[in-house]
Predict the structure.
Amino acid sequence: MFLGRVIGRLVAAVVTPGMEGIPLLWVQPLDKHSRPSGAAFVCADGTRMAGPGELVYWEASREAALTLDPSFVPVDHAVVGLVNDVQLDEEPADAVPAAAPSPAPATRAAPPEEAMILARVAGRVTSTIHHPSMDGRALLLLDKLGPEGRPAGGYLIAVDSVGAGAGQTVLVLDEGNGARQILKGADLPIRSVVVGIVDDLG
């Protein structure tokens, strides 16, 4: 999942069966500091409560469709929840990049080559209005790491299944079917789950 800001609504007079009544929103993808990152796109609103100006978190691919009822509809991005707060753990001032937009959008245009990734816990995301499957789940904002444990660029929001804390290096499953198996729900709109805390990189 990723952060985004609702910048408008889209109204379609005719839609494919199953999409009747689903709100459609223009969403600007954001980096972890809430700065624009890439081109805006249309998102189905799985919460049916998001509006212009609101900070949201969204999912792509099959997991996007799982936010809706019926869940097998032709959408590739959907709002999973409204963000109340993003709490980033303290970073040195020189670690925060300049306020220039990133050249590439934060979307998942193609599946990752590897479903398990390494990341560092950079903060938490709080949301009280969200898809029902998110009830009681802790959301962590994670910075992606390379094999040596150095920043690899990019971030993601993942469900925490192991109780990870600030600054810890974690193992993340970034594949929807596996995530649904771990969280024991066949229709969860969740793709990324923290599945381990890394003690050592050798």
Remarks:
- The first strand starts at residue 2 and ends at 10.
- Residues 96-114 have pLDDT under 50 and may be disordered.
- The radius of gyration is 16 Å.
- The CA atoms of residues 6 and 157 lie 18 Å apart.
